[in-house]
Structures
1.
Amino acid sequence: MKTDPEVEGLRKRMTHIKQVLQQRDLKLTHQRLEIFNEVAKSGDHPDAETIYRSVRQRLPTVSLDTVYRTLWLLLDLGLISTVGPSRERVHFDGNTQPHHHFVCTKCGKIYDFYSRELDKIEVPEAIQALGQGEKINVEVRGLCHQCLKNKSES
Amino acid sequence: MKTDPEVEGLRKRMTHIKQVLQQRDLKLTHQRLEIFNEVAKSGDHPDAETIYRSVRQRLPTVSLDTVYRTLWLLLDLGLISTVGPSRERVHFDGNTQPHHHFVCTKCGKIYDFYSRELDKIEVPEAIQALGQGEKINVEVRGLCHQCLKNKSES
DNA sequence: TTAGGTGCAAATTCTTTGCACCCTG
DNA sequence: CAGGGTGCAAAGAATTTGCACCTAA
């Protein structure tokens, strides 16, 4: 399933992460590169444990906590992202009206917002290959006012 | 901030949950009704602990595990939903290309899909009230093929 | 009456932390 | 060589489970 452009993209991303780490005076360790490589090349959405197991095959001594530390670091650096709310645990939603979410990627807070425009979106055909779509929810990610403020202050 | 239509909606939803529970021969306990009420009326996205604390004010003896059990039950019954992947822990995403997610609400798996159409969506104005939107990701929720199959078999 | 539901406490599972040693720059 | 980064083991959260008692139907 690996196509040339993907491999090429991966190579570029490996160069990119090195630059980013150096710019910030962070060390370019084996572990960091391997962990990033693992997430970047995965077409999946692995959890920490899965990444740990994969990386172990190449670096048999990595520890799970290094995997965690590195993943959060990569997230902070904007090199990878999370699916759904970042860092936080399950959150429940009792709002049954059509609505959408604004997720703050910094503090993890999730705000509802409404949009007639977005409510109109229909389940795309591509979904048929995966299953049966029932609900559509648009997720906008960014920084909430509070976190923007904290950022400018520091 | 509570408007009459909301209160009215909540009343209808309380009637609805009772019907659903009865239809399935599930008991209409105090705890279940209070927990549902708490999630349904919340404009927020509370986690289990928060719901627990609120419910405790009315039912001082509820336990956290009942809250969990009830929330998962309500989820199974389709009376509430979760934000992001259901049940699962943090999942990382190394895919930096614009893409969207199909989340199976049963097994929690998350599949990427692509759509030029959806990539065109712009950050709606409503976001300005909340913060700075950076990325848009459409989330389609439903059942994946595997879970559809398991369901029809049982 | 009688299953299904609950509360308690203990067990799991997931994630983070403190600290001594190691390796990148 | 110096300080950040790692691995280990242990601590801390979050969530689940077993079991005896309770209560809605």
Note: The helical segments of chain B are 4-23, 30-41, 48-56, 64-76, 116-119, 145-153.
2.
Amino acid sequence: MNKLSIEEKIAAAGLKLSQGKKEILEILEKNAPISVPEILSSLKTKKISLNKTSIYRALSTLIKKKLVSEIDLGEGKKRYEASSKEDHHHHFLCNTCQHIYHIRLDEMLVSKIEKNIESKNKFSIENHKIEFYGKCGDCG
Amino acid sequence: MNKLSIEEKIAAAGLKLSQGKKEILEILEKNAPISVPEILSSLKTKKISLNKTSIYRALSTLIKKKLVSEIDLGEGKKRYEASSKEDHHHHFLCNTCQHIYHIRLDEMLVSKIEKNIESKNKFSIENHKIEFYGKCGDCG
DNA sequence: ACTTAATATGCAACTATGTTGCGTTTGCAA
DNA sequence: TTGCAAACGCAACATAGTTGCATATTAAGT
Ligand SMILES: [Mn+2]
Ligand SMILES: [Mn+2]
Ligand SMILES: [Zn+2]
Ligand SMILES: [Zn+2]
């Protein structure tokens, strides 16, 4: 059903259709979460010139509109992935091949954990970040 | 029972008792997880001169010996906390006051989530990183 | 089509965290 | 006390990310 093109997604978000946002989204849609340096070299391969400053700025507006989400796996740099509005999920990073897998987990259990924390402390939890590390099937 | 002094902990780990390791551990023991820049200014306040390179190197050896653990809350820099050998726990970051709280959560539930993931995929999970964000009691 | 305002872009300079090489100093054990 | 490994300071470097400012592009409105 909801198969929007990149151009349509950008329009639907009320954003200007710039070369930057278009190319970046295109790259993000066919990759695992990637970093800005990786986006930069991917652009270079496609013979597209786009400044790193422009990339950071385009990503920033795309994130605000939830077309992109930012991931931090503790590598000292952020990663970005294309995101549709309702796809909250988590990641598994293979310590051997470094591949990043998207995983959807039982959010009921997560919610149970959060309730647990909230009852013991006086926190109100708005958000969580959960990642797993280990060995993937290819590397097992 | 196991109340070792900083000097004793360093000795027990088979490490040389250097000014750096001693002062750093002292600071870490009386603080929430802090970053290297913060350690640096904390040292300056105490009128102790220690180079940032030395701090990074001291932290690195302390981490290897599990006297310190490294935390990444996605702020673009690492944080460090004093750790005893068996205190695996997680953190809650208040989005308002930025305080970091240590939280111990029901690892049985976490384990259940992990089993779940492992059964659906062919991963073997070795490690996880779980953090919560929201509003703390003081800021509620 | 022509104008205009908002947004996007390039570039250079800058900030920040973290690392490396190397020469010197210090802790500690023989 | 002497010798070696570990620790240290310093400068230079690496990399991720930001800012200011001038110019270019986009999307409307005329
Ligand atoms: Mn993902
Ligand atoms: Mn902690
Ligand atoms: Zn793998
Ligand atoms: Zn708070």
Note: Residues 23 and 48 of chain A are 8 Å apart (CA to CA).
